[in-house]
Design a protein that fits this description.
heterodimer; A: alpha/beta; Alpha-Beta Plaits; FAD/NAD(P)-binding domain; 4-stranded parallel sheet; 18 helices; about 30% helix; B: alpha/beta; Rossmann fold; 8-stranded mixed sheet; two-stranded antiparallel ribbon; 10 strands; about 35% helix; globular
Chain lengths: ~575, ~350
């Protein structure tokens, strides 16, 4: 086509595409998948944002599959985890955090109800190495599940007559109903795990003997021995130790009766025990703890280590909690305790920089009581692992994977490490140990645990979100609570999906079209197929001028402007 | 024979003056993204490769209008940035028919296009577009005539509040106290002495079926208003507030933020007129102080000079103008409304939360 220059001219449509305005750019937008606060805080290593996104897409099963790729027991953790994810949730700074634990529980319950098979489980291959897992608690089950999915043949050796560990022996039914617990554990075992019961370490077998049959060993033995407790040498004749009482209660509903009870400790066991005592008719139940109650003035590492709603429920039921105090003397009549003298204290940084307990002189006071129950924690039972303890109380691992010094094929996880304390942490340990065992047996490098950069609240563009209240959760009122009725009700179906839509999608693409809609240069291309980073968009660097509107207007902080290379 | 001689003569002159005609037949060179570009789930009226500045609000506004109105649409354009940056000879960024004649006659050309289409029995809609200079001032009588003759044309004014194409001269749309090259802030004046012309009321006084203001900060609202105007048989008018990073003196990344603040502080009210009456406004959920909008733009920098007593006075003046708008159009929202300034830009997975 030739043309004649006159006073007018014309051009064919969209010929401007020949002019690559990308050469003007000094900064370029890139997608940056940051760590959402929920993910960063999760002891089990779940990426809650990832599975909430699947619920937002109305694909509940895909959400559950995403979840169980990390944590095989969502129906359990949704009920028992203290959900640090919700504490960290950025949404908490706008209105209230996402009800992550309720949604996790819903996914777990849906999978049980619909009998969805666990994803990515290979057929058992008799040529693959065998791995022994000692202890069928949450850590052991998690390790066995992840090892099975990696193709190993796994045998769990459990001392008791059923699997579950502390989940079964020490968590009240009001929080974790037995049918849910049994259903989820049996589903995990069905992926192809060989469970051998009544096999006690030290009595029925030794770790050294396992080497003949098994290529590696995971120790998920927990802490089975109560810490010695005495105050100034005085030990009441009828001393009941907390975890022991709780196990007796969960097993056969027995609980010594007393009018006035003092419980000493700062964990879930202590609070569970207080509530059971109260329900059994004790007039006064007092919890004395060295930790603080949650509040703006309490440092995060000083807060009572209890599931927050459990603490609220305990207060509703009339348990009295005395924070920042300890028992310094037992007042005895003969060998019976009739009162305790307590003193205020706080955990403050000492000369060495480590926190020390400082008692405040002049704050001593006396509480009359009929029974004192210490819940001050447990240590590893040395039977069968004395060599590994090196005289300590715990099996100190040298890294998150659970490697033990001098034992390249023995790994540890869960409470036995001494630096854990939740079911979720044990589940996370099991998964990491499975990765480490796989790395050891296949002679491949360990996975890189360096986290993606975090995304703070200030990294989001809040104009694009509306305030919306957290979903209300039904709850059995205090006067109708019984020994085995689950207190917290379910959030399910449309209410759960609506709750998932409250998720900001911190640091990951929300597929909201903002970048695509607001680019003045039409340089964002919408394509879920070609976007290899899991987003729904590509930047067309032929035309992007680098103005940065997309980065400013991305609600999720998923777009970053970097210097042009 | 004469024709051949003319052609030869023309060729000679071109060589002599170095004005050889470029080859217009060149289609866009293939790029790896062509395939997916051609399969985007929206019509593309304004393509990439145009020469607008980084973060141009007008380019965004024109893209939104053309993709909502197209493809069965023809454009007539006044002289201005939009015309210059979309059609640098011999290229065009448009995928719809586009005519540019003069600064003052976009509405007149559109009137003729509409009459011609009508004569040919075609239903193609005509859109006339211009900047605020070509609309508030230079093309105003052509626009008024178009409205009065009741042509079936949508006129879109991309309002960036000065003659940006020629170097930031003040226009009838430039707000009070804004500094431009012809209303510079200094010892004599605190920026523009006069007030922004209330063009929308003048348009409404023509008793047209639909006239509205919109902002690039609310694309869902822009699209709705364009669809509404396209549905009307008769003259309609849309003013789209379009920040200009160069003329207003702000980072191009902040275009949307600043456009949003203009609406949220009340200085740029979102109003819809039908037959001269206000039929709808976009309520402001939490009105922002005008200083939040002013302080991020260099054209208002002189209003933040603590040593100059006039600065405070002009800030208060602009706040009073914003309060006047809020009172006049009853912009203060009551409670939460999905159609207010906070509700309209809400997103969720899969796109904006569309309520209409």
């Amino acid at each position: 086509m030739s043309s004649v220059l006159t006073r007018s001219g014309y051009a064919d449509p969209a010929t401007s595409l020949n002019f690559k305005t990308g050469s003007w750019r000094t900064l370029r937008p890139v997608h940056k998948h940051a760590t959402a606060p929920c993910h960063g805080a999760c002891p089990a290593g779940e990426d809650q944002q990832a599975w909430l996104a699947k619920i937002q897409e109305n694909d509940v099963r895909a959400a559950w599959e995403t979840l169980v790729n990390i944590n095989p027991m969502p129906a359990i953790t949704g009920r028992v985890c203290p959900h640090p994810c919700e504490t960290a949730c950025n949404r908490g700074q706008l209105d209230q955090p996402i009800a992550i634990h309720n949604l996790e529980r819903w996914l777990g319950d849906e999978a049980i109800a619909n009998d969805w098979p666990y994803p990515n489980v290979p057929a058992i291959d008799s040529t693959r190495p065998k791995v022994a897992v000692i202890g069928a608690g949450p850590g052991g089950l998690s390790a066995a599940y992840h090892l099975t999915r990696r193709g190993y043949r796994v045998t769990i050796l459990e001392a008791l007559t059923e699997a579950g560990g502390l989940l079964k022996s020490a968590i009240p039914m009001t929080r974790l109903p037995r049918d849910v617990l049994d259903a989820e554990i049996s589903r995990v075992l069905e992926v192809g795990i060989d469970l051998q019961l009544r096999q006690r370490l030290g009595r029925d077998f030794q770790i050294d003997e396992l080497g003949d049959e098994y290529a590696a060993v995971f120790l998920g033995i927990g802490c089975q021995k109560s810490r010695e407790w005495s105050v100034g040498g005085a030990v009441p004749a009828d001393l009941h130790e907390g975890l022991h009482l709780l196990k007796g209660w969960v097993d056969h509903l027995s609980m010594p009766e007393a009018e006035r009870v003092v419980v000493h400790g700062g964990g879930n066991t202590a609070v569970d025990l207080c509530r059971i005592m109260k329900r059994k008719g004790a007039a006064e139940v007092t919890l004395i703890t060295a930790s603080g109650l949650p509040g703006p003035d309490t440092e995060p590492d000083d807060v009572l280590n209890v599931v927050p709603r459990e603490l609220d429920e305990a207060l509703e039921e009339g348990v009295v909690i005395i924070p920042h105090a300890t028992i310094q003397r037992l007042i005895m009549r003969g060998s019976r305790v009739v009162g305790v003298e307590m003193v205020s204290l706080k955990k403050l940084p000492g000369k060495s920089g480590r926190k020390e307990r400082i008692a405040f002189e002049g704050t001593e006071r006396v509480v009359a009581t009929d029974m004192v129950v210490p819940c001050i924690g447990e240590v590893v039972d040395p039977e069968g692992v004395a060599d590994l303890l090196h005289g300590g109380s715990y099996l100190r691992a040298r890294d998150p994977f659970g490697h033990l010094e001098d034992h390249p094929n023995v790994f540890v996880g869960g409470d036995a490490r001494g630096d854990r304390g939740t079911v979720s942490a044990a589940i996370g340990d099991g998964r990491l140990a499975a990765a480490a065992i796989d790395s050891y047996l296949s002679d491949t490098p360990l996975p890189d645990l360096t986290p993606r950069p975090p995304i703070p609240y200030a990294g989001l563009n809040l104009h694009y979100y509306e305030k919306k209240a957290r979903v209300p959760v039904p709850k059995v009122p205090p006067e109708r609570r019984t020994d085995d009725l689950e207190i917290e009700g379910a959030v399910a179906g449309a209410a759960a999906i609506a709750e998932a839509h409250r998720c900001f999608s911190c640091g990951n693409c929300l597929a909201c079209d903002n970048c695509w809609t607001l680019c003045p240069d039409n340089a964002v291309i919408k394509t879920a197929q070609l976007a290899s980073d899991g987003s729904h968009y590509l930047f067309d660097y032929d035309f992007c001028k680098g103005c940065g509107i997309c980065a400013t207007e991305c609600p999720c902080g998923y777009i970053e402007m970097i210097a042009e290379p | 024979m004469t024709e051949i001689k003319d052609a030869q003569r023309l060729e000679e002159l071109r060589r002599k003056h170095g004005r050889l005609a470029p080859d217009l037949s060149a289609a866009a060179e293939p790029s790896p993204n062509d395939d997916v570009r051609s399969r985007q789930p929206r019509f593309c009226g304004l393509e990439s490769g145009h020469r607008a500045c980084q973060g141009c609000g007008e380019a965004l506004g024109a893209r939104l209008v053309s993709e909502t109105a197209g493809p069965d649409v023809m454009l007539s354009n006044a002289t201005g940035c939009l015309e210059v940056f979309t059609t640098p000879y011999p290229q065009s960024a448009w995928r719809v028919p586009f005519v540019h004649s003069l600064f003052e006659n976009a509405a007149a050309v559109a009137s003729g296009m509409e009459a011609a289409l009508k004569a040919k029995g075609k239903r193609t809609k005509v859109i006339a577009q211009g900047g605020d200079g070509g609309t508030y001032d230079i093309g105003f009588q052509a626009l008024s005539g178009m409205l009065e003759r009741y042509h079936n044309v949508l006129y879109v004014c991309y309002d960036n509040e000065a003659y940006m194409n020629t170097g930031i001269q003040r226009s009838g749309s430039t707000p009070h106290a804004a500094s431009t090259t012809t209303s510079p802030a200094g010892q004599e004046r605190m920026g523009k002495r006069h007030l922004k012309k209330d063009l929308l009321s003048i348009i409404a006084a023509h008793h047209v079926p639909y006239a509205a203001s919109a902002s690039v900060a609310f694309p869902v609202d822009v699209r709705r208003k364009v669809r509404r105007a396209m549905d009307v048989e008769g003259p309609t008018f849309l003013a789209i507030h379009s920040p200009c990073p160069l003329g207003w003196g702000h980072d191009g990344a902040l275009t949307i933020q600043i456009a949003r603040l203009a609406v949220e502080c009340g200085l740029y009210p979102m109003v819809e007129f039908e037959r001269g009456e206000v039929v709808s406004v976009m309520p402001i959920r939490d009105p922002k102080p005008v200083t939040e909008y002013l302080k991020v733009q260099n054209r208002y920098r002189h209003l933040f000079n603590d040593k100059d007593p006039r600065a405070r006075e002009e800030r208060e003046h602009l706040q009073a103008l914003a309060d006047f708008n809020i009172a006049r159009y009853n912009l203060k929202g009551v409670g939460e409304d999905v159609m207010d300034t906070d509700g309209l830009d809400t997103v969720r997975r899969g796109g904006p939360v569309q309520v209409m």
